[in-house]
Write a structure and sequence with these properties.
This protein is an alpha/beta fold. It has a single domain, classed as 3-Layer(aba) Sandwich (Rossmann fold). The chain is built from 6 helices and 5 strands; from the N terminus they run H-H-E-H-E-H-H-E-E-E-H. It has a 5-stranded mixed sheet with strand order 2-1-3-4-5, covered by helices on one side. Helix 2 runs parallel beside helix 3. The radius of gyration is 26 Å and the shape is elongated. The N and C termini lie far apart (about 60 Å).
Length: about 220
């Protein structure tokens, strides 16, 4: 009898210990990053460490070029920001953007609006105009679709001079092992609605993915 009681008590101890262990594994911790902390590097896909520098570099290039153009125009007597319709972020890479798509859009929109070169139409107006015309952003390159969209924006008192497209592409290089390199290309394309002339600014970032911590040393010779 005493032996049975002992085994039952021992069983309860094991069960409680197992439940505690499972509970510990289910816990999650977090901390707030400060400005000096580096972004976490995504182990399987691109993350903040990839998109943040790509957006910053491409927008800086676009603003730098447009600043020179505006200065030249100002010397000729033509002054004023260019009204832009930002058509959105197109993902042509192998990876899903997830919630980064909206964040990328908002970062570009904010940077352009804070500059003196551009005035960006509010996204809600752009989405309403596309819905009204039953158009996708890529259909704005078709003359008929572009005319209908511009007319709809005029009716909403939101005329614009330029279309802006952001496009993400990627290229993957596979080694003999399980390691691979992915090249991310971020392109901003500014299209003049009067002439159809397009200007492009690009930023590129390369990232290595490895199945072990020694992968970067084996492939690139550094940590």
């Amino acid at each position: 009898m005493e032996r049975r009681k002992f085994l039952e008590q021992l069983g309860w101890v094991f069960a409680a210990t197992a439940a505690t262990a499972v509970g510990c594994r289910g816990k999650q911790y977090a901390h707030v990053l400060n400005n000096e902390d580096k972004n976490m590097v995504g182990s399987h896909t691109a993350g903040a460490e990839t998109w943040e520098p790509l957006v910053q570099e491409s927008v800086a290039k676009l603003l730098g070029r447009q600043h020179e153009i505006v200065q030249q125009a100002s010397a000729s007597g033509h002054i004023g920001p260019k009204r832009i319709c930002f058509a959105g972020v197109e993902n042509r890479s192998i990876e899903e953007l997830g919630d980064f798509r909206e964040q990328i859009y908002q970062k570009i929109d904010t940077c352009l609006n804070q500059s003196h070169e551009f005035e960006v139409i509010n996204k809600r107006f752009v989405e309403a105009g596309l819905r009204e015309c039953a158009l996708r952003p890529d259909q704005l390159f078709v003359p008929e679709g572009r005319r209908r969209f511009m007319a709809a924006m005029e009716e909403m008192e939101q005329p614009f001079d330029y279309l802006l497209f952001a496009t993400i592409t990627s290229g993957t290089t596979q080694s003999n092992g399980k390691d691979y390199q992915r090249d991310y290309l971020f392109t901003l394309e500014l299209v003049d609605m009067q002439t159809g002339h397009a200007e492009k600014e690009q930023a590129e970032l390369r990232k290595g993915y490895h199945k072990s911590k020694l992968g970067s040393i084996r492939t690139y010779g550094h940590k």
